[in-house]
UniProtKB/TrEMBL annotation:
Protein name: Sulfate exporter family transporter
Main location: membrane
Keyword terms, alphabetized: Cell membrane, Membrane, Transmembrane, Transmembrane helix
Cited InterPro entries: UPF0324_pro
Membrane-spanning residues: 81-102, 108-131, 138-156, 204-221, 228-247, 253-276, 288-307
Membrane protein topology class: Multi-pass membrane protein
Places the protein is found: Cell membrane
Signal peptide limits: none
Length: 311
């Protein structure tokens, strides 16, 4: 085609990606299509999509900031602060206890616990080098969190509707109980604009806890001279939100940038699903899944109870 040789896998990948860029595609559908691709013909661009996914997610999150009000975001962040502190500390402690009971390697336990407690793959990627984790330990932790994260994107919106959660309640619950920022934003966007605003703000505020948790990890595991990855894209989100709130001339561009950001997020979830191949699922093993499920159900049920009764 036009002088290029294309394989069937590449053609299918391209067609699905193009569809995910259209208004007919939703975040859950994009993730499902990516998963279907990974489990059938496979992803022909695994290495490239891994690189693109992280950057695309960051730019999409920044773009969402152009549709948010700084005053509302501050209120949401303040409300989620206590939930964040208690849930992170509780998840790390529970992870340590359950991990010892299962007989899992200590580094794997800490990585899965951090991924569940803070922000999924981003937290694992930041804490792993501080921990001195091996490649196979990183793969196990990332595989566990990504699989459960994918399930959360499908499960949470129907649960929220069944329980008649308000937009406010659902946004807060998503930010606390879903692992990765991509699925938090995807699930909240499917629920409504208010849920999206609250979920994104609280989740990004939660992501900043990567820094103190990474420092604590270096102390507990007695690691010296380590480099901690700081999620600078959160500053871009805050800046975009401030521009949208205080620069009237920028407001006409807001809807366009938010629309592009949502499209970028949909493509991101397609890439994430396309990366969950059979080999990724097999490398994890049973015990890490047990740990991940116990932590996920614990934080999801406890936070839901508190939100329904207090928020």
């Amino acid at each position: 085609m036009l002088g290029f040789t294309l394989t069937l896998r590449q053609v299918v990948f391209g067609l699905l990606l193009v569809f995910c860029l259209t208004p007919w595609a939703s975040p859950p559908l994009a993730l499902a299509l990516g998963l279907a691709l990974a489990q059938t013909v496979g992803n022909p661009f695994v290495a490239r999509t891994k690189v693109v996914t992280s950057k695309l997610l960051q730019f999409s999150v920044i773009g969402l900031g152009f549709g948010m009000n700084a005053h509302a975001a501050v209120r949401a962040g303040q409300e989620g602060l206590l939930f964040t502190i208690v849930s992170i500390a509780g998840t790390l402690l529970l992870g340590y206890l359950v991990g010892r009971w299962l007989g899992l390697e200590r580094r794997v336990v800490h990585l899965i616990s951090c991924g569940t407690a803070i922000c999924g793959g981003s937290a694992i990627a930041a804490v792993g080098p501080v921990l001195g984790a091996k490649d196979e330990e990183m793969s196990v932790a990332l595989g566990t969190v990504f699989v459960l994260n994918a399930l959360a994107l499908f499960a949470f919106p129907p649960i929220g509707h069944a329980l008649h959660l308000s937009q406010h309640q659902f946004g807060l619950w998503c930010a606390i109980a879903i692992h990765d920022t991509s699925s938090v934003v995807g699930a909240a966007a499917a629920y409504g604009n208010e849920a999206l605003e609250i979920a994104t703000t609280v989740k990004l505020a939660r992501a900043l806890w990567i820094i103190p948790v990474a420092l604590g990890t270096a102390l507990v595991f007695k690691q010296k001279g380590v480099k901690i990855t700081i999620p600078y894209f959160i500053l871009g989100f805050v800046l975009a939100m401030l521009v949208n709130t205080y620069v009237p001339a920028a407001k006409p561009l807001g809807p366009l940038l938010v629309s592009l950001a949502k499209t970028g997020l949909t493509a991101t979830l397609f890439f994430i699903g396309a990366g969950l191949s059979n080999s990724v699922l097999r490398i994890v093993g049973l015990k890490p899944y047990v740990l991940g499920i116990v932590l996920w159900l614990s934080i999801a049920s406890a936070s839901l109870y508190v939100i329904e009764h207090l928020a």
